[in-house]
Amino acid sequence: MKFFFSWLGEIPEVALGVVFILWFIDVFIQYRNKEGVEAKRITSKRLSNGDENPVQIEVKNKYGFKINLRVIDEIPFQFQLRDKDFKLSLQPGDVKSIHYNLRPTKRGEYDFGFIRIFISSPLGLINRRYNFDGAKVLPVYPSFINLGKYELMAVSRYLTEFGIKKIRKVGQSSEFDQIKNYVGGDDIRTINWKATARKGALMVNTYTDERAQNIYCIIDKSRVMRMPFEGLSLLDYAINASVALSKVAMLKEDKAGLITISETIGAIVPADRKSSQLGTIMNVLYKEKTRYLESNLELLYSSVRTVVKQRGLLVFFTNFESLSALHRQLPYLKRMAKYHLLLVVFFENTELKALSTESAKDIEGIYHQTIAEKFIYEKKLMVKELSKHGILSVLTAPQKLTVNVINQYLALKAQQRI
């Protein structure tokens, strides 16, 4: 064609020249502004283990034209996820926020990388990269996001909304609160006749739950607590429940303490109800890890006798996979129950429970189902064995641990058994 129309040979050269001009224009308008984009990652100072933690990225366009962005957030390797990748467009001066959640399943330090932003102008010939918020380290602490909900559980009249049962009080507490005017429905046995004579109207004594009682969470760190369910180990479930129970206990004006045990005694936090107590407990539990040996309950018993001077509630988080394992530890549990109200908390194997309800398709399936039912039945026998020796117990699914333990504490508090 160029033989007949010589001007056709100039079109590729003109087109290439136009592309180069547009490329230089794109480079110029993007790089003339040193800070054309601003971005920052907004998170809490620490993450809550086992919970959905909100993360926000805020991006602002400082160019005088519309830009298209690709935003990549380099999240910690512990999540085993590819970097969070988002695409959006911004008009001049616009500010937009990107929201997503992260659920850590291990305590410790989590390293965030850069927020990498690739922008393109309406010409779309080049991308410019920006980096923001590099090398940010956040600690992951025992679960604290839902502590407000558990506080409400301790004071709300509508406890059934949280899975908490209404407990009928037995007897009358001896902890005096105040003298008030009699109203219909008050117990006539609480009428204060001296105050009535002075006032000239019926006055009654009111009582409140006993306070300042010792509530110790004892956490087993041995190998039996390594088993994972939904990403969290049994130790992590026990730690999260201990933090929530300590918070509720202090809200009820009791003293919260902590003991961790494996083949040796780990951390000991004496019971107290000062404002910094919960922070102390969380800082201790932040560092705790499971061990590979069996717990030394004889050492635990001697430590309890040394540390816990007054009678209190001992909540022992552990796990037994067989009756023989329980029988090995039973003598020491009986000794502790002699001096304190002992509540042993151990776990259902939810995967075995699901397996036992499935319909078997062959001989192998029947065999697996039979073994699963045997282990489930043994767990129920453990509850009866502990009850036979006057030891309270809670057998619970890991996911329901916190609610069930708080429910049991409130029940014992209402029944004045502590």
UniProtKB/TrEMBL annotation:
Transmembrane segments: 14-31
Keywords: Membrane, Transmembrane, Transmembrane helix
Pfam families in UniProt: DUF58
Listed InterPro entries: DUF58
Domain of life: Bacteria
Residue stretches making up the DUF58 domain: 179-323
Residue runs in coiled coils: none
PANTHER family (UniProt xref): BLL2464 PROTEIN, SLR2013 PROTEIN
Protein known as: DUF58 domain-containing protein
Source species: Pedobacter psychrotolerans
Lineage: Bacteria, Pseudomonadati, Bacteroidota, Sphingobacteriia, Sphingobacteriales
